[in-house]
Amino acid sequence: MKQFTFDEVQSMTFAQLGAVEDAMDLMATGFISPMLVRYMFRTEQLAARYPGVALPALLNAINKAATMIAFPPEVGQKAPVAVRDEVVDAYLDELQPHTESALKPN
Questions:
Q1: Alpha carbons within 13 A on the beta-carbon side of 69
Q2: Please, are residues 88 and 79 in contact by the beta-carbon 8 Å criterion?
Q3: pTM check: above 0.90
C-alpha cells in the first residue's frame, strides 16, 4: 500500500488521482481534499463543478473551504467509495461557494 504525501498528490493529474484504487492511500496527506477530488472525478462531477481549475489550486481551495463548514462523518465514510451519494453531493454543494471564494485572487 502506497501512502501518498500531499506534495505527491499536488503533482498528479486529475486522471492519476482518480486512478488511485484505495482511497485510504490518500489519508497520509492529512487533508480531505484529495479524497473529495477523487470522488468528483470518479463520479464525473469535476468538470461541472470546477471547470478549468488546476489540481493544485483546487486542492488548496478545498482545504481552505473545508474549515468553513462542518464535516459530516458520513462523508468521510462514503466519499472513499467514490460512488455517487446524496450525502457526499450535499456536502460538496455546501462546500462549493466557499471553494470558489478561496479560488479567487485576493
A1: 19
A2: yes
A3: yes
The whole-angstrom separation of Cα 16 and Cα 20 is 7
Q: Which residue has the cell 460538496?
A: 92
SS3 category, 105: coil
User: 6-40, pLDDT tens digit by residue?
Assistant: 999 999 999 999 999 999 999 889 999 999 999 99
Q: How far apart are CA 30 and CA 48, in angstroms?
A: 26
Kindly give, in sequence order, each residue whose CB lies less than 8 Å from that of residue 105, ignoring residues fewer than 6 positions away: none
Q: How far apart are CA 16 and CA 5, in angstroms?
A: 14
Q: Which of 43, 2, 38 is closest to 18 using CA atoms?
A: 38
What would the grid cell of residue 55 be? 489540481
> How far is CA 28 from its chain centroid?
14
Residues 48 and 92: their CA atoms lie apart, in Å, by: 12
**Beta-carbon neighbour count of residue 50 at 10 Å?**
21
